[in-house]
Request: fold
Amino acid sequence: MPDDVRRSHDIFVQRVTECANVGQVVDMAMSTWHALNNVLSPVIGQRGFFELYKRSLYVNRILYPWLLAVYEDAKRPDDFTGLRDVLLQRTMQDATESNDKLMQTFYDILGKLIGEPLAERLLRSLWEKPSSGHPAQDTSS
Amino acid sequence: MSKANINRLKTGVQGLDEVLGGGLPEFSFNLLAGPPGSGKTTLAHQIMFALATPERPALYFTVLGEPPLKMLRYQQQFDFFDLDKLNRSIRFINLADDLAAGDLSKVLARIVGEVEAHEPGLVFVDSFRSVILANQGEGNSFISLQKFIQELGVLLTSWQATTFLIGEYFTETDPNPVFTVSDGLIWLRQSVQGNSMVRKIEIMKMRGQASLQGLHTFRISNSGIQIFTPPPLASPPEHDDTLSVCSRLPMGILGLDEMMGGGLPSGYSLLVAGPSGSGKSILASAYLAEGARNGEAGVIAAFEQRPSQARGHVIAGLIQSGRIGVVDTRATSLSVDEISMQLIAEIRRLKARRVVIDSLSGFELALAPTFRADFRESLARMVSALASTGATVLMTSELEDRYYDLRFSPYGTAFLTDAIIVQRYIEIDGRLQRVMAVVKVRASAHSNELRLFHIGNEGIEIGERFANYEGLLCGKPSLYQRDPMTD
Reply:
């Protein structure tokens, strides 16, 4: 995984650890997937993005069997409701771990296809945008 | 009031600006066409990466055809693919989804939106064939292809964008509306003969300027596309001649300069013709080594043996030290224009005074079959172009030993050159001996003697004139019978 992508991913994981429940984890996952789609589809096409997403689901279906149903039901490129519905039914740890691995696989495939530097450049705008996550909490007092 | 001034952009593709007639007209609307694999996308990318800047950004619209993921993967292999320009000067935008319904008005609206958003100075649509097919296939378009092209042309011209539509399978004879609207038609072709494949480019139309007519060969390497333009015809010498026009270059073989009337006149082309093993390459090596001794750089294009091989340690050392430049002749399917360009580039780089082409026979064999028919014409152009650099050229030519006619070159190249030396085998006293004669040195007196020569450790040693013999070149030597009455 490219360094910048890894950093961004680490930030995502860090934010997830601050989530109070599985609903917040899934919201964050959905917002990241939509952002990825918005950045990549104009360049590689919706179809290109969709196939990478499906391939990532397929690769992880053994380790996280609940992703198989998402893979089989995925029909529309910009629709992540299948993933959302499945993750909402998992424990917070399962949801976090499986989505984390899914994204890692997605980044890896993208990096292998177009090269890590180009993947990093395309995704840079994603983490250059102001954070849409939860504001940092002041815990000093 | 001054006339409209067309700014010509430097495309960054070696040879393309010359072929286009001085560069790419800014704000022109161009079609780049050719069969699959002919290099259309590579040419478009190379031009885009050379021209795109933050002030003149580029939009590269990908339509159906090559998936963008693959295009990005493979195009990165070229040196010109500069990651730093992505999303700063260059934006890739996929239109496949907009085209899926076959509605060209939707595609046009998307292009208008992106053009308004990014104000590009350069626009590429790859591949445009997909747009045409989508229009033909569904038949549910709200605007016709002709209207689409016209509106696109007007839009991009008024936004002052230099545009390329990239497509394949166009037939030149089809009354395709894009032909009328476009300012430039650039055609890439592939000519296959036997196992040889040659890529060629043709500028079929370029409004506002005179492009170089005809087909021009090009190669695709890691650095991108390189087009080989015909070498420019004779013009005054480029680099300052410290020697006058009448000066002569020593040949590096004792006695040969005297035979030539004082050496080889500077700027001349010399043909050394002879059968296999007669010593042509050794003479050529001596010529280069003599130049190096006098501080003159040389360039060699060797087609029959490796330049540093079998030419002795002196030439090998001069090549190693960079005083003799070597033109790479190992590529397959060469053209005379390609070798000419390489030779001229090396001559300019080293400011070389001496050039050797060894041999014309090997040169012809190294050419792609498609160029062999025009070898003589191309060679004439090359010799003229080399002469225009001010260099003095020595070419060797394999000559079949025939004793029933006196020939100097199998290509009729003798007339192209200013001077000719011929080497022959003769049989005397049961020995195979070598003789040499200067046949021609234009506008100069020269020896007419047939001289015996040997090849020893020190190279060629010229001996005495063959006195008292006649008929040596006819294969029937006989002792000349003096007429006692005339003595």
